[in-house]
Design brief:
2 copies of one chain form a homodimer. Chain A is of the alpha/beta class. The first copy, chain A, has one domain: Divalent-metal-dependent TIM barrel enzymes (TIM Barrel, Alpha-Beta Barrel). Helix content of chain A is 41%, strand content 11%. In chain A, strand 4, helix 4 and strand 5 form a beta-alpha-beta unit.
């Protein structure tokens, strides 16, 4: 396993970690100044600005864009809405290319309003991904399927395990083109009894495009916005990173923490210093 | 699939559904009077009373005890605590036998305080189950492993999928003695991409000992106490029950709803009438 001591160049900050409280250009500067090697910005902040200008700023600071967050949800109650969702993702993929992103993060979406058809929603996802894979190749930006924790199956993602994501990858991309893979996120996957074997299989297929770190707090008070800083929770982070790296992952370790009542209330500089410290000691 | 219309004798009420607001003897009477065929009481209410007396009351009312809730958590920080946990479960199994319970529900427990050793906790569970299986045979009460939703992996159950539970069953009980199996709970399992195949495998091995119904609310506000009444959420309940019955399950359908802000505030009679209505129409 790589030693992250003195290697913040191997570490990236997902801008959500700072709570989206400042303009993106300021956040980019902060992250670069703090010595991190990468950044993962969100569409709502990038699309508010001029994409080419953001790309230029990031490039000038030598930051790697470890992922572009994130897809428009795919499943829809009507076919025309589904088509619109796919098309929004195609546009976002072009922005991801402008940003030079290592991957476009696919959070696939939950059940359409009023639906109880989980397998139907999963089919809509696969069908959408098949279309997007074409665009991804054209743009040169890989799709990273991010399985979300099962507690989000209803409202955010019907894709819930690495094994499920890999099944989709194998079905749509038998030739292992390098444009369809997964983002492994500590928060979503740490509990999975099949974690080790799924990570190994993902690596074997060359499909690990991103690794997201945070922690699971023993007493989680909010299903969405109470993620822990690395070291404050129950996840064996070194063991998990070791699996991912043993499986061949050589990309950056990206910190992504949603924490409304704690880290989002703290000074962004303090948050970045804490991330830097924890990355070098407990991850 | 069985038609539940007019067949409340095929339906059971887990007493947690009523919020444990009344003495158990009153709850037993209510459930029997409402026409249900079964009941699943909790240890904390049974142990407050005289077990033999409760058993007598239940028997006199011709109620089937669809499950006795539930095990003491197994994983522990020290060996002596682990032994104590196992022994508490042995005592509870004897009470389950007195009650004539169809199974003893195993909610296996989360990580010990301060621990990050998930696989170690899982080993403690397997080891404990091996011991308890002996007692279960002696008492004539099967152990029903209940995989809990992955959002409880830290604090309530390191057993999180049916596939994982079945692996344990196969390892500890190759001969399929009938004393080690699973409780399939809608709330915990509905999201699982491997649900259908796991249910089929469980049925094939004769290991489905209980089926628990409720619903997953699209906007869940509390990780523990915001379960939905059947029909109010996003789960395709008929499809799930059909899988379970096609796999050979012939036991009762047990309603188990934790709902602090909604159903636990309503009159117990209203809750039971609603359960009866929904069981016969949407489950």
């Amino acid at each position: 396993m790589r030693n992250l001591k003195g290697r913040l160049d191997l570490c990236s900050i997902n801008t959500a970690t700072l709570g989206h409280r400042e303009p993106l250009s300021l956040t980019i500067d902060r992250i670069a100044r703090a010595g991190f090697g990468g950044i993962a910005p969100w569409r709502h902040e990038v699309e508010k600005a001029v994409v080419a200008q953001i790309a230029k700023q990031i490039k000038a600071l030598d930051l790697i864009v470890t992922g572009y967050c994130r897809s428009t949800y795919l499943p829809a109650a009507t076919r025309s809405q589904w088509v619109a969702n796919v098309n929004e993702n195609k546009a976002a993929l072009r922005d991801a290319a402008t940003l030079g992103a290592r991957c476009f993060v696919m959070v696939v979406g939950g059940l359409p309003e009023g639906s109880r058809d989980l397998s139907g929603a999963r089919e809509q996802v696969s069908e959408g991904l098949a279309e997007l894979l074409e665009t991804a190749r054209d743009c040169g930006v890989p799709l990273a399927l991010e399985p979300l924790h099962p507690m989000y199956a209803a409202d955010r993602s019907v894709l819930n395990t690495l094994a499920q994501a890999l099944d989709i990858c194998d079905a749509l991309d038998r030739e292992r083109s390098g444009f369809l893979g997964v983002a492994v996120d500590v928060y979503h996957c740490w509990w999975d009894p099949a974690l080790r074997s799924s990570i190994a299989a993902a690596g074997e297929a060359g499909r690990i495009f991103a690794y997201h770190a945070c922690d699971w707090l023993h007493q989680t008070r909010d299903m969405l916005l109470d993620r822990g800083m690395m070291g404050d929770g129950v996840v064996d982070l070194p063991a998990m990173r070791e699996s991912v790296e043993r499986a061949g992952y050589e990309g950056l370790v990206e910190v992504e923490i949603f924490s409304k009542e704690n880290w989002w209330r703290r000074d962004p500089g303090e948050v970045l210093r804490t991330c830097a410290n924890r990355l070098q000691t407990v991850v």
